[in-house]
């Protein structure tokens, strides 16, 4: 408490409702080299957490936890490397950013599969040689 009341940084995490995205913010100097730093919370009554995982879990339970933790720590989230069905084209896509077979990041509500074969098995009516986004 004393650190916050005298303007020192705590290096703890908090939910900053003024920023975009589903992530927590680290109470540290934004001028530092740490990309997670967002400065101190404006409200001294804001609950602080020891790490991004705890903050994301308690304050952003609806969000993808791996993505929340990565972005809260200033790290780009690149997906889970699992597969999901892109129903707009009825093909399987890899949960990642970049060239095919990546199809972008899967939404939290999407069913994911450990392998392309597992995903393609769900699309029984699609030729297995044509089931992945190319």
Task: Name the descriptors.
134 residues, alpha+beta
Task: Give the arrangement of secondary structure elements.
Elements: H1 2-5, E1 13-14, E2 25-26, H2 52-59, H3 65-72, E3 83-86, E4 91-94, E5 112-113, H4 116-122
Concise description?
With 134 residues, this protein is α+β, with helices and mostly antiparallel strands. It has 4 helices and 5 strands, in the order H-E-E-H-H-E-E-E-H.
Structure overview:
- The protein is of the alpha+beta class.
- Helices cover 20% and strands 10% of the residues.
- It has 4 helices and 5 strands, in the order αββααβββα.
- The chain has helices spanning 2-5, 52-59, 65-72, 116-122; strands spanning 13-14, 25-26, 83-86, 91-94, 112-113.
- Strands 4-3-5 form a 3-stranded antiparallel sheet.
- A hairpin with a 4-residue loop joins strand 3 (83-86) and strand 4 (91-94).
- Helix 2 (52-59) crosses helix 3.
- The longest helix is centred in the middle third of the chain and has 8 residues, at 52-59.
């Amino acid at each position: 408490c004393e650190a916050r009341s005298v303007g020192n940084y705590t290096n703890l995490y908090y939910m900053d409702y003024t920023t975009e995205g589903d992530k927590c913010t680290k109470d540290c100097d934004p001028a530092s080299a740490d990309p997670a730093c967002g400065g101190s919370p404006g409200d001294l009554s804001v609950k602080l957490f020891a790490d991004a995982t705890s903050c994301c879990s308690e304050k952003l339970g609806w969000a993808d936890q791996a993505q929340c933790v990565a972005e809260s720590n200033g790290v780009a989230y690149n997906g889970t490397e699992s597969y999901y069905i892109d129903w707009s084209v009825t093909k399987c896509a890899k949960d990642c950013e970049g060239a095919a077979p990546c199809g972008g990041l899967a939404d939290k509500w999407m069913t994911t599969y450990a392998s392309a074969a597992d995903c393609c098995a769900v699309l029984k009516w699609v030729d297995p040689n044509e089931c992945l986004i190319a």
